[in-house]
Amino acid sequence: MRYEAPSSTKAAVTLLSKEKGKSAILAGGTDLLVRMKGGFIEPDLIVDIKHIPQMRQIKKTASGFQVGAAVSGVELGESAVKKAWPGVVEAANLIGSKQVQGRCTMVGNLCNASPAADSVPALIAAGAQAVIVGPKKKRTVPVEKIPTGPGRTSLAKGEIVESLLLPKRPARSGDAYLRFIPRSEMDIAVVSAGVNLVLDAKGVIKEARVALGAVAPTVLLVAPAAKAIIGSKLDDEALDRLAAACSAACSPIDDKRGTIEFRTKVAGVLAKRAAKIAYQRAGGK
Fold first, then answer.
1. C-alpha to C-alpha distance for 153 and 145, rounded to whole angstroms
2. pLDDT tens, per residue, the chain with 285 residues
3. CA distance linking residue 225 with residue 227, whole number of Å
4. C-alpha to C-alpha distances, 72 to 31, 99, 105, 258, nearest whole angstrom
5. Could you give the CA distance from residue 76 to residue 257 in angstroms, rounded to a whole number?
């Protein structure tokens, strides 16, 4: 097994695209190293991206924030992103323990492609995009286009996610993320929900995005749930429509962590609670 630590994205892409065996990208390593130790994966090449400067940066731009692929959860929580996108940062800071937070990254969480990934519903609700660099071109795609199933992504050979783009916050906007777990912390979401809202001057919801985790093979962007609350002040009837739309979108598995019925019901409950928090953060009363 070879270990490489390139200093540029171009060099990383060249290594990944030319490797004939199995390759893996190392950022925080909180998933990769556990899988290697467990014998689930044995890559021929490991490409460590932590030495690539642009992947270690959080940049505030005219259009929002650019978060490098190797930025850790702790670094994200100590940045200006926390004030602009509290729901995204709260979701990212639920990944693992305090020790894991110093290593884990949102891009790693995304590319691990677990439907229960904590940061992904919040990123999708936020309308985040992924900047992907490949051997022939650079492209930008919505985050929800990356996972295609449990453990699978749409990334082609040699492609790497260089950064995530979070849009600039409009006035009167807010987001939130909630999950259900059996324990108080350090657990995998049984169900989760991310909500992002924009209000008009009268407190009426004019834009909404709702995403659900752990209720399908990939995290779901639930357009009918957003439609259910747009034009409302998040009154009880709107919240009930939101919950019904979320439950209707669910197609979860049935396992020891949660039954189909439980996950379907709780998805609506969490979406209502997350929407209330997002509404308050947007200045709604």
1. 8
2. 999 999 999 999 999 999 999 999 999 999 999 999 999 999 999 999 999 999 999 999 999 999 999 999 999 999 999 999 999 999 999 998 889 999 999 999 999 999 999 999 999 999 999 999 999 999 999 999 999 999 999 999 999 999 999 999 999 999 999 999 988 778 889 999 999 999 999 999 999 999 999 999 999 999 999 999 999 999 999 999 999 999 999 999 999 889 999 999 999 999 999 999 999 999 998
3. 5
4. 13, 11, 5, 30
5. 30
Q: Six-digit token pair at 18?
A: 């030319």
34, two tokens: 């556990």
| CB contact set of 63 (below 8 Å; sequence gap of 6+) | 165, 167, 168
Distance CA 67, CA 246 (A): 29
Instruction: Please give the backbone phi and psi of residue 244, each rounded to the nearest 5 degrees, phi first.
Output: -65, -40
What is the spatial distance between Cα 269 and Cα 285, in angstroms, rounded to a whole number?
Answer: 20
The pTM is what? 0.95
**Greatest CA separation found in the chain?**
60
Nearest to residue 213, comparing CAs of 99, 109, 129, 141? 109
